[in-house]
Amino acid sequence: MSPEPMAPRPGPVEPLAQSAALARAWAAELCVHHGDGACCDAYHGFWQTMRLMRLGATLGGHPAHYLEAMAAWAAQPHAHGGVRRVLISGCADYSMLAHLWHAGATVGVDLHVTVLDICPTPLRLNTWYAERQGRPVHTVCADVLAHRPSLGYDLIVTSSFLGFFSPKARAALFQAYRHLLREGGQLVFSNRLRAAPEDVPVGFTPEQAESFADMAARLSADLPPPADLDAGRVRSMALAFARHTRNYPLASEQTVTELAAGAGLSIRQCSVVQSAAMRPAISGPTLGDGSRYLFVVLQR
Q: Which of 120, 116, 125 is nearest to 145 (CA)?
């Protein structure tokens, strides 16, 4: 299947220079230590700095596909009346919220947004961004599998979330999404495609980690204040990020087809898209290296 092209479209302006420094500070204070002893501060504290250096691509490096899908959903008649309820299921920062609001604004639709993550750091970033925009947002610090709102959602959006779930756990995730969606509600997500066993987590090779850290150190000279850091610290943070990052692959469209069928969700779109090659000279999980992604829209 050939990647589906899409012309770039204007997106929201994100104040990364201001928030990257906050993300580092809040990650050190708030990030969660998981059962295996690992902590997500290496990820949440460095992701926005990576984006400033064009090492990390937001929304899988194809935000235009999200904007189109979210705007198309928002433009449809609302079957349940009242305000449209949206769940952002897992996030690294406020980028999904910014794109969601931007998509709603293009069609003149207001949205009631809940941001859910198991870690307080990205939730703090979303609250900070919402306050800057003068708009309300509801945050929930919880596992999505345990989330039980009083009302369902009209839309659930997420990016590269499948990589956090083993093949055995993915069926439960899709069942949870089905129960969280109102009738007619949609699930929009994308995930990198990688021809590898889906039950074996993939991380950076030692060579990839060193190459990534070296490039990050070189690029640190261009970081704008107040997000600026010295090259040595950036290199250390890059190595910590590489050590932390391990994702379960998504090997093919068939996996999503089977998960959707098992959860009773119909497929509206399932297409291969090309992510932006932010820094083609490097490669590794989560990096903006021009990888192929599967972009999916499901409906209950």
A: 116
Separation of CA 69 from chain center: 15
Residue 58 to residue 95: CA distance in whole angstroms: 7
Query: Cα separation of 90 and 96, whole Å?
Result: 10
Q: Number of helices and strands (H, E) in the chain?
A: 10, 9
Note whether 125 and 31 are within 8 A (CB): no
Give the whole-number percent of the chain exceeding pLDDT 90.
85
Helix (H) or strand (E) holding 186: strand 181-192
Which CATH superfamily is 16-280+287-299 part of?
Answer: Vaccinia Virus protein VP39 (3.40.50.150)
- Does residue 120 have a cis peptide bond before it, meaning omega lies within 30 degrees of 0? no
Could you give the 3-state DSSP secondary structure of residue 10? coil
Q: Measure the CA–CA gap between 262 and 169, rounded to whole angstroms.
A: 13
CA 300/CA 298 separation, integer angstroms: 7
pTM exceeding 0.90: yes
Residue type at 11 in one-letter notation: G
